[in-house]
């Protein structure tokens, strides 16, 4: 996506970046274990764990009985006893049986025990729509988790981040809910996994996820900031390109990490452009997009030349495949919203 | 087992059976630890059969089976039946109707499999190979009863009488459920695994409170029995003494995960006793046995207001869905072996031997199946264009102000698109 990556000769898919991040972490640390539904023999329904059982054995990557609460709950026990579980929820909406374990225990254990019991668990969740999936297979459920103190929430939008951020999540001492935009699984970019590995393992990558400074400008601009994350970043970039033809220069910010939240980057871009549009697939009411909008208002009010607008999914259950195109934020809807901004003083 | 034309015996107390002493559990309960009412119903039922409650609740020594893999009727002593586990063979007209269902069911599966391969369906989880279970589930119920199916149970739902065109709405990707559940007493096919079992228990509980004569068939797969909701549903049903038949189609796999990685129980039917209900295991590719066991389970549930668990062992002959590649987790040899036990062929042989199936009948039955297949194809060609504005219609009984606003926004976009797209 950036100029440096475009020159690479090797192309890498989002799926293989995730897969390699797990196998590298497993290689480096025997306490990393991967489990979930169909992750072993099958390699996951999206093949993200393909080959891990073969390479590391059934004790390191294994199928569980079909029970999400069981998967999350036993991950708690495993983490208490020295392991670093990386668990897979098969689809966004199928994580819901595990919410009690996630909200009541995974998120709170460190706090309850005054930091004596930390749970370095990664919960991988394929999420979002745009792939023609039937009901319960396309939810954007990030707000539920982001609303729960104690959980970090990451979502990569590029192949490089798929690798770097999953490594980061596995190394985190806090539980991380790792949202994988399923529409990006098959996307490919000019990236070289051995370079990404070297970058991550050097410990000095500028792209590391820390307590702050996590968001990245993925397109520079001067007139308006489009703030986005995960599956919507590519839509935001396309809209930015399209609006450039109308003479509007849009900057695009990819949040990467929803929790922790990078207020500084948000503030910097909005203060620079004076206008902001937030784009996310999830329904807009009480959403991550709402939170971003509120933070802009709190921090950048005096720099704003226009109200902050949002482009999100409608406040409806995710539609059946034939109607999803009407629900998802697309380039046209972003362009409409850019038109609605106040452009003259 | 002789064939009978009367309904299976009810386990009501029979005179002279009081002398069978059958303690529930090992010892007399501690004060405050009395067993539930349920226990006394189980006790009564087991007494009536002259067996212990454990013998009543545990599945029979072997799974119930009436036809051998070739479709020949097997001797009564080898059917797995016994006291408290008696399964009379259904009447001829029921058997013939079941065969009709099997032929139609196979046709539905194969037609939809073809349609999905042509890219004309969003998805189709086929029950090819499981048609005996599918048909049995529908035919075992009365019109006043409810069915709670999963994504895999298209054939059950159609056999129950739901309009095939309405069933295809979800697989075609138009809307999540294309029929009105109240019209057919068939719930919307459920995808979040096992959740529907609790709904089934609730319907039965409400029916009990309302004084209705309703049995509920709660359907799920083998993998789904691992979910926590399975435990909660069986427990609620037993504690509230409601007439639910839990029907587990054990097709050996949950996507790629074999039953051996799913459960360490001797069988899924063995789980019943832990809840204080009777469990039975049946050969799910034997149409006669499936019908006999399901009909008796429904009858017992109705008569005694108790839940039962029936596990049918069967096999999914095709991949989990069109998105699945089953060669990654099972060999074709295994699939070939199950071809030998094809429920349709077995039933055809049985009925032919019995003199119930002549060429004319066979022709009439396949013509009817062809009609359904044609209507499925038709459903794809007529392909109604859904109204995008319906998206806002059923979220609340009355749309919120915000939804009105969003509806207007989409309506405006659609008009502009019609007039020539975004400027
Ligand atoms: C709560 C939940 N978790 C995961 C899934 C994804 N999923 C769909 S079907 C399936 C396997 C179910 O296996 P089984 O219960 O044996 O039924 P079968 O598909 O074999 O008929 C899985 C894991 C789901 N639908 N719901
Ligand atoms: Mg199964």
TrEMBL record, chain A:
Name residues in a coiled coil: none
Q: Where is the Transketolase-like pyrimidine-binding domain?
A: 12-187
What's one Pfam family here? Transket_pyr
Residues spanning the signal sequence: none
Cofactor(s) listed in the protein's UniProt record: thiamine diphosphate
> What Gene3D superfamilies is this protein classified in?
3.40.50.920, 3.40.50.970
- Keyword Oxidoreductase on this protein? yes
Q: What CDD domains does the database record attribute to this sequence?
A: TPP_PYR_E1-PDHc-beta_like
Which keywords are on file for this protein?
Oxidoreductase, Thiamine pyrophosphate
Entry's Gene Ontology molecular function annotations: magnesium ion binding; oxidoreductase activity
User: The organism sits in which domain of life?
Assistant: Bacteria
Q: Determine if Acyltransferase is one of this entry's keywords.
A: no
PANTHER family recorded for this chain? PYRUVATE DEHYDROGENASE E1 COMPONENT BETA SUBUNIT (PTHR43257), PYRUVATE DEHYDROGENASE E1 COMPONENT SUBUNIT BETA (PTHR43257:SF2)
Q: What is this protein called?
A: Alpha-ketoacid dehydrogenase subunit beta
Lineage here is: Bacteria, Bacillati, Actinomycetota, Actinomycetes, Micrococcales
């Amino acid at each position: 996506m950036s100029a440096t990556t475009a020159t690479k000769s090797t192309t890498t898919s989002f799926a293989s970046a995730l897969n390699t991040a797990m196998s590298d972490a497993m290689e480096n640390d025997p306490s990393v274990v991967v489990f979930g539904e169909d992750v072993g023999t099958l390699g996951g329904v999206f093949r993200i764990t393909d080959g891990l059982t073969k390479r590391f054995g059934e004790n390191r990557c294994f199928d569980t009985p079909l029970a999400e609460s069981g998967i999350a709950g036993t991950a708690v026990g495993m983490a208490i006893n020295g392991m670093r579980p990386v668990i897979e929820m098969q689809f966004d909406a199928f994580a819901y049986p595990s919410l009690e374990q996630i909200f009541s225990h995974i998120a709170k254990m460190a706090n309850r025990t005054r930091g004596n019991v930390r749970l370095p668990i990664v919960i991988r969740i394929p999420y979002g729509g745009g792939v023609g999936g039937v009901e319960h297979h396309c939810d954007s459920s990030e707000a539920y988790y982001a609303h729960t103190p104690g959980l970090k929430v990451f979502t990569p939008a590029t192949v490089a981040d798929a690798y770097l951020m999953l490594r980061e999540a596995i190394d985190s001492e806090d539980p991380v809910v790792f949202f994988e935009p399923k529409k990006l699984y098959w996307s490919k970019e000019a990236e070289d996994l051995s370079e990404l590995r070297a970058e991550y393992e050097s410990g000095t990558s500028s792209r590391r996820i820390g307590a702050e400074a996590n968001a990245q400008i993925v397109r520079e601009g001067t007139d308006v900031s489009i703030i986005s994350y995960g599956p919507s970043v590519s839509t935001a970039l396309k809209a930015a390109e399209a609006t450039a033809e109308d003479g509007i220069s849009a900057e695009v910010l990819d949040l990467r990490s929803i929790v922790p939240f990078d207020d500084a980057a948000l503030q910097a871009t909005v203060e620079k452009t004076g206008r902001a549009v937030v784009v996310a697939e999830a329904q807009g009411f009480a959403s991550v997009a709402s939170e971003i909008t509120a933070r802009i208002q709190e921090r950048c009010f005096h720099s704003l030349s226009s109200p902050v607008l949002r482009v999100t999914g409608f406040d409806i259950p995710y539609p059946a495949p034939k109607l999803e195109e009407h629900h998802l934020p697309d380039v046209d809807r972003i362009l409409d919203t850019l038109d609605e901004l106040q452009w003259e003083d | 087992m002789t064939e009978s034309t009367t309904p299976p015996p009810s386990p009501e107390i029979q005179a002279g059976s009081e002398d069978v002493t059958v303690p529930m559990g090992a010892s007399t309960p501690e004060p405050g630890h009395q067993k539930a009412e349920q226990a006394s119903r189980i006790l009564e039922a087991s007494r009536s059969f002259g067996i212990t409650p454990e013998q009543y609740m545990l599945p029979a020594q072997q799974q119930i089976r009436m036809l051998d893999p070739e479709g020949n009727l097997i001797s009564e002593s080898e059917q797995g039946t016994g006291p408290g586990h008696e399964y009379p063979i259904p009447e001829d007209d029921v058997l013939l109707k079941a065969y009709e269902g099997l032929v139609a069911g196979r046709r539905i599966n194969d037609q939809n499999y073809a349609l999905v391969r042509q890219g004309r369906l969003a998805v189709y989880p086929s029950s090819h190979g499981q048609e005996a279970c599918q048909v049995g589930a529908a035919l075992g119920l009365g019109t006043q009863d409810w069915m709670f199916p999963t994504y895999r149970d298209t054939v059950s739902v159609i056999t129950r009488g739901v309009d095939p065109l309405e069933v295809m709405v979800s697989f075609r990707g138009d809307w999540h459920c294309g029929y009105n559940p109240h019209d057919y007493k068939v719930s919307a096919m459920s995808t979040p695994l096992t959740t529907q079992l609790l709904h089934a228990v609730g319907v039965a509980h409400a029916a009990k409170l309302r004084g209705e004569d309703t049995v509920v068939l709660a359907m799920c797969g083998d993998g789904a029995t691992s979910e926590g909701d399975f435990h909660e549903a069986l427990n609620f049903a037993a504690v509230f003494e409601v007439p639910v038949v839990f029907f587990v189609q054990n097709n050996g796999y949950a996507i790629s995960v074999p039953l051996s990685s799913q459960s360490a129980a001797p069988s899924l039917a063995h789980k019943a006793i832990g809840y204080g209900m009777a469990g039975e295991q049946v050969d799910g590719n034997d149409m006669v046995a499936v019908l006999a066991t399901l009909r008796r389970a429904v009858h017992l549930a109705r008569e005694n207001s108790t839940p039962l668990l029936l596990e049918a062992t069967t096999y999914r002959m095709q991949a989990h869905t069109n998105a699945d590649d089953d060669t990654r987790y099972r060999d074709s040899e295994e699939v070939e072996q199950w071809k030998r036990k094809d429920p349709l062929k077995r039933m055809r042989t049985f009925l032919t031997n019995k003199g119930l199936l002549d060429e004319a009948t066979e022709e009439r039955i396949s013509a009817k199946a062809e009609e359904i297949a044609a209507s499925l194809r038709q459903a794809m060609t007529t392909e109604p264009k859904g109204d995008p504005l319906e998206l806002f219609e059923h979220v609340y009984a009355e749309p919120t102000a915000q939804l009105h606003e969003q509806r207007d926004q989409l309506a405006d976009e659609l008009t502009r698109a019609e007039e020539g797209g975004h400027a």
